[in-house]
Design goal:
The complex is a heterodimer of chains A (87) and B (355). Chain A is an all-alpha fold and 87 residues long. Chain A has a single domain (3-86), classed as Non-ribosomal Peptide Synthetase Peptidyl Carrier Protein, Chain A (Orthogonal Bundle). Chain A has helices at residues 3-17, 43-57, 64-70, 74-86. In chain A, helix 1 packs across helix 4 (74-86). The longest helix of chain A is centred in the first third of the chain and has 15 residues, at 3-17. The radius of gyration of chain A is 12 Å and the shape is globular. The model of chain A has no long low-confidence stretch (mean pLDDT 92). Chain B folds into two domains: 2-215, Thiolase/Chalcone synthase (Peroxisomal Thiolase, Chain A, domain 1); 226-352, Peroxisomal Thiolase, Chain A, domain 1, CATH 3.40.47.10. In chain B, 33% of the residues lie in helices and 20% in strands. The relative contact order of chain B is 0.18. The model of chain B has no long low-confidence stretch (mean pLDDT 96). Classes of the chains: A mainly alpha (87), B alpha/beta (355). Chain A: This is Acyl carrier protein. Chain A: InterPro entries: ACP-like_sf, PP-bd_ACP. Chain A: It comes from Chitinophaga costaii. Chain A: Residues 1-85 form the Carrier domain.
Chain lengths: 87, 355
């Protein structure tokens, strides 16, 4: 899967998992921060995104500091997933 | 038990159009599916969007009804937040359990776990109101709401000026199906408005969230005053009669002093004899049932109490909600509520016009 296709898939999965009503994949900027600004997600959402990674990509993030970097944006999430799949 | 507290404000989300509506002009809502589902108002503006997107029906109903009740009562921070619920957020619990199976006890979503706990609504109310006062949730099946009411009274007696009291439960398709197998619901589909005329085993399911702001002083415009409550567990026929008589004696009431019997009659032939017995002990007293309006659920009595308080406050009944030929009282000063839950848990509540 290309990174563009993965980012599109991630956006759809985030919208579904977090029940982001009235948000479409096109509304989510690849590089916009997911937390605080941008989508305005909070700490509970970060736990849900960790679960999303585990369920859909079999990636378990153990270190919270690492999680913070991975979940910065859709771009960082996609890059991390691809790196894990290649490893 | 004898006590007095005042209903300063109240709010109900129910299968009827009770939320911010004039119930005396709203049409009766019915179903022929044996499951009366609560009418859902628009929650935008009542609940922050970031919280709303995570919430199940029970949480939305509970938080919205509580917020509205506090707003109408003019009290942002009550001295206690006390609720009763039989099942809490079933929707979250079911999803969490299904996920345990689907994902083999791994990768479980924290939201469903957090929100499936019975005290989630209380927590949300406290967070929204930034309230750090006494906070308690009672989960005692058919006496969950009544237990919460009892605690509310104790808190008011102990010096709290205002207590937010609530009862809430939701119905889900899975729960409906599971309880169908246990004979809780009627096997044949009936029209909810004809529930009382259709006497057979089982009843119809319901749901709702009702909140009251109770005060230890009458205030300016109390809807009604709660004067007493009596709870019984699996009473014999004799015990039920005796308990009712004692309850009336405690309040120096003769049956003729009661204007209306508001009962939880629900068309279930297995338990109809309890309601018949209470009605026979109060000869000539008009009786109306609230279950055709809200269905059966653990905390349905809260809806009955809310409806009775509305009638007392307005001095009239929403007559369009009751079958043709229903006898209504001339005055609404003293209402006795009686409800029982599958023959095991019984409760009397005495409600009066606040003077």
């Amino acid at each position: 899967m290309t990174i563009e296709a993965l980012k599109q898939q991630l956006k759809e999965q985030i919208i579904e998992a977090l029940n982001l009503q009235d948000t479409r994949p096109a509304d989510i900027d690849d590089n916009a921060p997911l937390f605080g600004e941008g989508l305005g997600l909070d700490s509970i959402d970060s736990l849900e995104l960790m679960v999303l990674l585990e369920r859909n990509y079999q990636i378990k993030v153990e270190d919270p500091r690492e999680g913070r970097k991975i979940l910065q944006s859709v771009q960082s999430m996609a890059e991390f997933i691809l790196a894990q799949q290649l490893a | 038990m004898k006590f007095q507290c005042y209903i300063q404000s109240s709010c109900a989300i129910s299968p009827q159009h009770t939320f911010q509506q004039d119930i005396f002009s709203e049409a009766l809502q019915t179903t022929d599916t044996n499951m009366l589902q609560a009418w859902q108002p628009s929650y935008a503006g009542l609940i922050p969007p970031n919280s709303l997107r995570r919430m199940s029906k029970a949480l939305k109903m509970g938080l919205a009804a509580a917020s509205q009740c506090l707003a109408e009562g003019g009290i942002a921070n009550p001295g206690a937040i006390i609720t009763g619920t039989g099942k809490g957020s079933l929707q979250d619990m079911e999803k969490f359990i299904k996920d345990i199976q689907t994902y083999h006890e791994t990768a479980l979503n924290p939201t469903q776990f957090i929100q499936s706990t019975f005290n989630a609504v209380n927590g949300l109310i406290a967070l929204q109101q930034q309230n750090t006062q006494y906070n308690n949730t009672f989960v005692h099946r058919g006496l969950s709401f009544e237990s919460a009411l009892l605690d509310a009274l104790l808190q008011l007696s102990a010096g709290k000026h205002h207590v937010l009291l609530g009862g809430f439960d939701e119905v889900t398709p899975d729960q409906f199906q599971i309880k169908s197998h246990s004979g809780w619901w009627k096997q044949e589909k009936i029209h909810s408005a004809a529930l009382l005329q259709h006497l057979s085993p089982g009843t119809i399911a319901g749901e709702g969230a009702v909140f009251f702001l109770l005060a230890n002083q009458p205030g300016d415009h109390p809807a009604a005053s709660i004067e007493g409550m009596k709870l019984l567990h699996k009473p014999s026929s004799h015990k039920l009669d005796t308990a009712l008589q004692q309850f009336l004696d405690e309040h120096a009431l003769q049956p003729g002093h009661i204007d209306l019997l508001m009962s939880g009659r629900n068309g279930d032939s297995n338990y109809q004899h309890f309601y018949d017995q209470v009605a026979q002990a109060l000869p000539g007293i008009p009786e109306v049932s609230f279950k055709p309006l809200c269905g059966e659920y653990d905390t349905a009595h809260a809806f009955g109490l809310w409806l009775a308080a509305q009638m007392i406050k307005a001095g009239k009944a929403p007559q369009q909600w009751f079958p043709a030929g229903t006898v209504f009282p001339k005055a609404y000063r003293t209402v006795l509520l009686y409800n029982q839950y599958y023959g095991e848990q019984h409760a009397f509540i005495l409600l009066k016009k606040a003077l």
